[in-house]
Structure formats: structure tokens, C-alpha cells
Amino acid sequence: MQHPAEHSPLGKSTGYATRYDASLLFGIERRVKWEELGLASGQLPYTGVDLWTAYELSWLLPSGKPAVAVAHIEIPADSPFIVESKSFKLYLNTFNQTCFSGFAEVAAVMERDLAVVTGAAVRVRLETLEQVTATGLVTMPGLCIDGLDVAMDQYSKPDAAMLQCIPGQGQEQLHSHLLRSLCPVTGQPDWGSVAIEYSAQQTLCRASLLRYLVSFREHQDFHEQCVERIFLDLHHLLQPEHLKVYARYVRRGGLDINPYRSTVDTVWATGRLARQ
Q1: Active site residue 190
Q2: Do 238 and 204 meet the contact criterion of CB atoms below 8 Å apart?
Q3: Of the residues 50, 183, 221, 226, which is catalytic?
Q4: pTM for this prediction
Q5: 160 half-sphere exposure, CB direction, 13 A CA radius
Q6: What does the DSSP 8-state code read for residue 138?
Q7: What's the CATH architecture for 143-262?
Q8: Residue 221's Cα: distance from chain center in Å?
Q9: Which residues pair with 165 in a beta bridge?
């Protein structure tokens, strides 16, 4: 079956334009993967956003002098389309030799163009390099489970049956830096860290969680869809009072993608991790 991204620029030799061109943005319908996961638009069991960070953003001021900034983009998790990452990179390149009045105009243009391609309202916030530097690095919340002594042999087929619970009320924040998956078109690795917070009438077996997360290591899917699969498998197992799953991926091509999915309307901290 052809992947929905096959018609995108992903994995293809592409020229790089330097003059503004919103037509380069390519949207991929979420519906295809939602149906694969048993989901339907308007009936999603989570709320959330995909948090993108664009580190290679530059344009020309009216004087002809270049300006640079870091962009933070929030795309709603229920938007009909996601943005294919290479098309986003090509689009951002077209700002390089285009004149804009300043931060406000660049953010407004990006919000407008991304809203068109995703079919939802998108929020864009720009920061100076000084502001980004002042923010510094953060750590994932809760306990890191990577130090568990666990034998593993499953790397390409995430299976919810791997997850196990133990008796007793569970309320935890856990995280792992061992998440790795593959781009479904190019096969390139996507490295990430994932945080999980839940409250339920049972407790998640940490060793089983680590095995499950490592089983994504050769699994082919986009960042957003890996996080949704993790959320759904945990939600089915735990039947939680609340559940949050948040992944921060290492940047590629000047972009990182950080999806979060939650049963409650909340926002995770957006600071950079050491690998970002």
C-alpha cells in the first residue's frame, strides 16, 4: 500500500528556492493513520498539539539586512492534516531572500500558510537567539527507566500485549530516552525521548514499558503517529483517570517535532533537551 507521503518531496531530489513560496508546503492526511489505529475525526480520546521548533529561520529586513530567529509552532492534534517535514524545510528556505518587516509579519505569514495546509488554526511564536539561550536546557519529568536491567529482542513491531500492569493504585511520571523509530518513506532514524504521566487503579510495570518503547526501534511511522500509538496502547491497558504522553524528538534539517497527547487539556514544558 502506498504511503500517504509518497507524493511529497520526502526522499526525492529537490531544488531549493530562496524566494517566498507557500505552495511548497505539503499536507498529509491524518485520517489514514487514525483509521489504522481505530480512531475517527471528532471522536479522538485525547487532546494535544504537535510542537515544532524551527532553528533555521532567516529573512531580509527592509534595509536588506538578514534577521534570524527560532520559531515555535503549535499544530492542533485534531487538525485534518500534518505537515510533511521536508516540505516545511523547503518552505522555510524561501524566507531567506524575502523581505519582511519583522518578527510579527513573519509569524503572521507562517500562521496563515500553516493553517491552510493543516486545516486548523496554528500558533507561531518567534524568539531571538538571546531569548532561546536564556531559556537553557530542561530535563524530562519524573523517573528515567532506562537504567532497568531488561532483556530485549523485539525491535520492529510494537505490540500492546508487551505492556503489563501490577496490582495497586498507580500515579507516576516516567520517561525514557531510548525511543527510536524510522521514517516510513526514507527509512532514516528518528531519535526521541518520551515522557508518560498517568493516574490509574493499577500500576504500569516499568520493565514492560521499556521493552515496549524499545520495540519502536525499527518501526516505520511519523513522530505524531508513534506517540498516538503509545497513548492508545497505554490508555487501553490502564483505563486511566488521566494519561499524558509527550515525546521530544532530535531535530533533523533544522526542525524538531514534539507531539503530546493527553486526556486533559494541558501543556507540557517546551524547553530543549540536551540532544536538541
Answers
A1: yes
A2: yes
A3: 183
A4: 0.92
A5: 13
A6: -
A7: 2-Layer Sandwich (3.30)
A8: 12
A9: 204
- Please, are residues 191 and 178 in contact by the beta-carbon 8 Å criterion? no
List pLDDT tens digits, range 208-262. Answer: 999 999 999 999 999 999 999 999 999 999 999 999 999 999 999 999 999 999 9
Are residues 141 and 185 in contact, defined by beta-carbon separation less than 8 angstroms? no
Specify the residue for cell string 531571538.
128
Helix axes 206-214, 223-238, angle to 10 degrees: 150
Q: Residue 188: is it exposed, middle or buried by C-beta count within 10 angstroms (0-12/13-18/19+)? A: exposed
Query: 146 an active-site residue?
Result: no
Of 113, 190, 221, 233, the catalytic one is: 190
Measured CA to CA, the distance from residue 70 to residue 53 in angstroms comes to 7
* 187 Cβ contact list (under 8 Å, min separation 6): 220
Distances (CA, A) of 217 to 69, 105, 181, 187: 33, 40, 5, 11
- Residues of each domain in the chain carrying CATH 3.30.1130.10: 14-135, 143-262
pLDDT tens string 62-88 = 999 999 999 999 999 999 999 999 999
Contact 186, 244 (CB under 8 A): no
Task: Give the CATH fold of the 14-135 domain.
Answer: GTP Cyclohydrolase I, domain 2 (3.30.1130)
Rounded Cα distance, 238 and 181, in Å: 24
